[in-house]
Amino acid sequence: VQLQACGGGLVQAGGSLRLSCAASGRTFSRYAVGWFRQAPGKEREFVAAITWSGDNTYYADSVKGRFTISRDNAKNTVYLQMNSLKPEDTAVYYCALKVDSSHYYMITSYGYWGQGTQVTVSS
Question: Where are the alpha helices (DSSP H) in 3-119?
Fold first, then answer.
């Protein structure tokens, strides 16, 4: 499975963006998917995750109420709708497949990382 994230860009504070994570491969729908982000000089951090069925979602406290993760297995795509963006949301955003049974927040649970997409929020 290969993942490709897109949809990033430059937006003013308070604005919105929708990121997409498109997957190749027929087994995509069997995996939970997570979004992570990495700001300059900082470690990569968990943002949101969604189970294979889409029935359950998980969010970092910093994005709860502002970001929404969803998926369309028919299109092999996971989305991250980002509203009320803040300058501190500026980072490269990555998607990845959850490949083991560890907690959804743990970066070590994920593999098959896609290339990132840059999100820049200006104040």
Answer: none
Closest Cα partner for 1 from 84, 95, 91, 101?
A: 95
Burial class (CB in 10 A: 0-12, 13-18, 19+), 47: buried
For the chain, how long is the longest CA-to-CA vector? Answer: 41
Angle at 97 between CA 13 and CA 95, to 5 degrees: 20
User: Is 105 strand, coil or helix?
Assistant: coil
Are the C-beta atoms of residues 12 and 122 closer than 8 Å to each other?
yes
- 16-28 pLDDT tens trace: 999 999 998 767 8
Nearest Cα to 2, choosing from 121, 103, 97? 97
Q: Provide the pLDDT confidence category of residue 89 given band limits of 50, 70 and 90.
A: very high
Residue 8 is which amino acid? Answer: G
Kind of pairing, strands 9-12 and 117-122? parallel
